[in-house]
Amino acid sequence: MSEVLKFTTLTDIAKHLREVLKNDAKPSLEKDLVLLFGHNGAGKTRLSMEFKEMGKAYDDDGNVTSRDTLYFNAFTEDLFSWHNDLENDTDRYFKLNTDSTFFNGLRELQLETKIESFFHNYVDLKFNIDYENASVIFSRSDIVEGAEQTIDNIKISRGEETLFIWCFFLAICQLAIDQDPAYSWVKYIYIDDPISSLDENNAISIACDLANLLTTGGIEIKTVISTHHSLFFNVLFNEFGRKVKSKRYFLHFKEPDIYTLQDTGDTPFFHHIAIISELKKVVESDKIFTYHFNALRSILEKTASFFGYDKIDKCIHGLEDEVLFERALQLFSHGKYSIFDPQEMIGDNKDLFKRIFNGFIAKYEFHFPEIFNEPTNAATI
């Protein structure tokens, strides 16, 4: 079983990731890429900031004199905001917070052309950057009475907005990878959850395009990619494959001041397996709360979708007391049970939950990778 590393702070994890990517003592052990999976709340965004801060140098007055990490995370997305023209509802544009160094060289480096080359891979929209007012105006073409007509100042969807910001970042990444003098300082690229608000088709496209961008000609810049999206993780896992020297980790926030990091090995994993594993531990501990029925129902819905079933009751068809099980799932999973105000089940309901869960597991014979098992030889850092 692979060793599970325990950390007390995200700073310690950031230090570990840097050591994985640059091992001065044993250069042969260095990796070019770290692929990190973690559920929401595990600390991925905060970890990206710790990693970024660790690469800064300061003078005696506290001013930043150098940095080494180009990063994308929720803070990057916050550099863009909408002016919706609430008064007239006509003059809508995307504002750029040019107080950030993220936008340095926007005009001089012809980023607009580079952004466009990426953006048009995903959507059929046009945009124009107003450099003087630090804003972006979007437009689209429609056919009106048989003639093509351009509609300006449109408000794009949240998914299209995410794609534009992502393509903006990719354009900068391309400059860094191409060793443009303006980005010669970039030694690391850190990407955290770039696909919020996107459907699975775009998630796959982005993963493939990102892997292609980073591996064309070999990875020149050390890279960390973290995500909570299981499909995105698995596509990246397979796209990178053995093309690059990489480490793949599962990040888990187990309890206050304890983070664990485990190498996933050569087997990618899926979100639903992690949930089932957690429910398995819940059943074994007998600490079953009302909201666990919601998690179990979620698993049944994913299973039903996989097999093409129209209802979740078909996932438990053939089990003893299947009618009772189906009613229990409907009743308990639709209750207003909050994880922030957990209520432990009474004995009879616990037994019912166990029977449904164990029957479901026995029917489909899920395999639980070691990554989801409690380690017996964990190293604390």
From TrEMBL:
<feature type="domain" description="Protein CR006 P-loop">
    <location>
        <begin position="148"/>
        <end position="337"/>
    </location>
</feature>
<dbReference type="InterPro" id="IPR026866">
    <property type="entry name" value="CR006_AAA"/>
</dbReference>
<protein>
    <submittedName>
        <fullName>AAA domain-containing protein</fullName>
    </submittedName>
</protein>
<dbReference type="Pfam" id="PF13166">
    <property type="entry name" value="AAA_13"/>
</dbReference>
<dbReference type="InterPro" id="IPR027417">
    <property type="entry name" value="P-loop_NTPase"/>
</dbReference>
